[in-house]
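Apologies for my clumsy wording, but are you able to produce some protein sequence, whichever is easiest, and the tokens describing how it folds?
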Amino acid sequence: MKKRVGLRISMLTLIFCLVLAMTTGMMAFAANFHDYDLEMINFNINQGTNFSGTFRVQDNTPDGTTGTVTYRYYTMEPYELVKEYRQTVTYVGGQFQVQGSLSIDTTGWVSGEYKLAIHVDKDLGYDDPLAVGYFDFVAAAPAVVPAATHSLDGYWAREGDGVGIEISGSTGVLASFGTESNEWMDAGEAGVASLGNVKFSQIQLVGDNEWSARDLWVIREDGVPVRTSASDEGTITMSADGQRIDVWSKRGTSEFTFTYVRSAAPVAVPALAANQRAIELAPNVPGTVSFPEAGVAIELLLPGGGEGTVSLDKMTATDKALPEELEALGVFMKIERSEGLEGVQATIKVDLPTVPEGVDADTLALYRFNEATGVWDLLPSEMKNGQVWATVVDFSLFGLFAQPVAAVAPAPAPVPVPAPAPAPEPAPAPAPAAPTAPVALPRTDGGSALPLGMMAAVSLMAAGGYLTLSRKKK
């Protein structure tokens, strides 16, 4: 019995020693090879097409020890290996650090969740990794890159007025002001815009055959161009055939859309002199050329239409003889036209000058010098909107004249009134004549006088009695 118990104790002791030895060996293995800290410092995905990161592994490995880093990419459902990459690293100071080594192109990958397993091994002949880190990421669908079927570069002419734009890259400049409208032409004449100014800026492709851009606007006050300003936003949309573009732009609450057509490079136009203006007139449609520095605008009308130039030279004096009965106001203009404007009808509008004293402002009028007669001919004129307007059928030398204020005739000298002559003394009135004595009537024999009235009465009574008796007898 005692022998059996001793045998059992011996067996248990042997088993305990074996287990202790194995445990000590495994602990030593763990201490030497499993004491790793895998730390992900940075990890990100860039626009769904690639990702990059930085990690480091630290342990007590001696300097110069090499190891292998294996990158394995798995899908989540189902859990399958997609890609595997390996990289050799060297320990320095008991650690190694890799930056940017996780970059991988995920183009063509199905959108969804993925897992990255990073295995770190020492080249010591062991198959199992000494450290493993797992990181999840999502591969997004590749971004759709917009495309342009046709290039936007080239020359474009705006429908309706012919304004020309030359586009190159992200910028479009004014190539011509056009000849069918004054929108940009008068801006050029006013010094607000000029050829070569940037018309479209910040052009950028944002969709198939669609670009974002900012458009240049002419800002006007009371219809007069005063400055330019870029729109707040805008788009350029090209037709499928690449021959037309629609340009929409918005500034504040205002927005406009213009259509441009692809055209050949504009023909070089000779530069105009400072005193010249070019214009194209449609039949019976008026157009205006302005000379703001001279204070003159000319409205033109050509029944058959045409194009050409108008020049104006303003002077304060002339060598032509002036009319003696008029006062010159120091405004003379020599206006000429090119042959293309033959037969033009014009209304000349001249800003009112300062009228000196002694001149009747109400008689201001434009006069045309007649080369044949040497006389200044009065033109029908009117004052309107602070200007003198006159209609002409052709150009020549013109001047502003007015009549002098009419002189007021002096009042006649007073005529002296002679002093009245003294009245003569009145003659004394004659003494009244002595009264005439009444004439005595004759008396009858009886000595009594009968009045004539009584005699007449008696006669009448007698005549009446006679007539009565006569009627009775009958």
